[in-house]
């Protein structure tokens, strides 16, 4: 299958267009989470993914939320402090841990998830049912393609050093 012809203008690039949708729609969720519930977007992702996946080890949770382990660990610590999740030693390996929602965490997800789902439904109303089905299929294929490209190129790309700012930039 031949890939679609894509304009080379920055504004037409797939990742930029996806960013714009995520930025606008995500801002509503961020305001809802932070302003209404006192949790960050990262904390929300962890809570939402723990819903129905109780007892995950932090490393598996990091993979599911697609965050590095240190950011996941900080978010877990914040959620434990807010009494929304528990972190308990794993039964088989005392060095490991498992995280799970508390009753307060379950209640927060039960209240917030329908609101986030409503935002998603409202955004998808711009598509017919057939277009929505095709869009979901396309997203699955794009995700698989992006993962394959990531796996192929990850060793060849330079490591990101965001903390270095302009000092770490090399001249090309």
For the largest beta-sheet, the strand count, sense and barrel status come to: 2 strands, antiparallel
SS class: mainly alpha
The poorly predicted ranges are: none
- Strands, count: 2
Span from first to last CA?
A: 35 Å
Specify the CATH architecture of the domain at 10-128.
Orthogonal Bundle
Average pLDDT confidence is: 88
CATH class division of the domain at 10-128: Mainly Alpha
Instruction: Tell me the radius of gyration.
Output: 19 Å
Find the CATH superfamily of the domain at 10-128: Winged helix-like DNA-binding domain superfamily/Winged helix DNA-binding domain
Strand content: 5-15%
Please give the count of helices: 6
Order of helices and strands: HHHHEEHH
Strand arrangement within the widest β-sheet reads 1-2
CATH topology of the domain at 10-128: Arc Repressor Mutant, subunit A
Fraction of residues in helices? Answer: 55-70%
Q: How would the global form be characterised?
A: globular
Record the SSE blueprint.
Layout: H1 14-37, H2 41-50, H3 58-65, H4 69-81, E1 85-89, E2 97-101, H5 103-124, H6 129-153
Description:
The protein is mostly helical and 172 residues long. It has a domain at 10-128: Winged helix-like DNA-binding domain superfamily/Winged helix DNA-binding domain (Arc Repressor Mutant, subunit A, Orthogonal Bundle). It is 59% helix and 6% strand. The chain has six helices and two strands. Strands 1-2 form a two-stranded antiparallel ribbon. The longest helix has 25 residues, at 129-153. 12% of the residues are buried. The model has no long low-confidence stretch (mean pLDDT 88).
């Amino acid at each position: 299958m031949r890939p679609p012809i894509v304009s080379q203008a920055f504004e037409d690039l797939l990742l930029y267009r996806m960013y714009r949708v995520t930025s606008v729609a995500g801002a509503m969720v961020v305001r809802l989470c932070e302003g209404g519930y006192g949790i960050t977007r990262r904390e929300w992702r962890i809570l939402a993914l723990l819903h129905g996946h109780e007892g995950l080890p932090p490393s598996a949770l990091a993979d599911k939320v697609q965050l590095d382990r240190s950011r996941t660990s900080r978010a877990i610590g914040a959620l434990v402090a807010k009494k929304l999740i528990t972190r308990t030693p794993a039964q088989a390996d005392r060095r490991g841990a498992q995280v799970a929602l508390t009753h307060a965490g379950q209640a927060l997800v039960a209240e917030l998830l329908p609101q986030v789902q409503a935002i998603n439904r409202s955004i998808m109303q711009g598509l017919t049912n057939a277009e929505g089905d095709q869009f979901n299929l396309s997203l699955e294929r794009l995700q698989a393609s992006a993962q394959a490209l990531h796996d192929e190129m990850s060793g060849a790309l330079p490591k990101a050093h965001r903390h270095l700012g302009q000092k770490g930039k090399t001249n090309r």
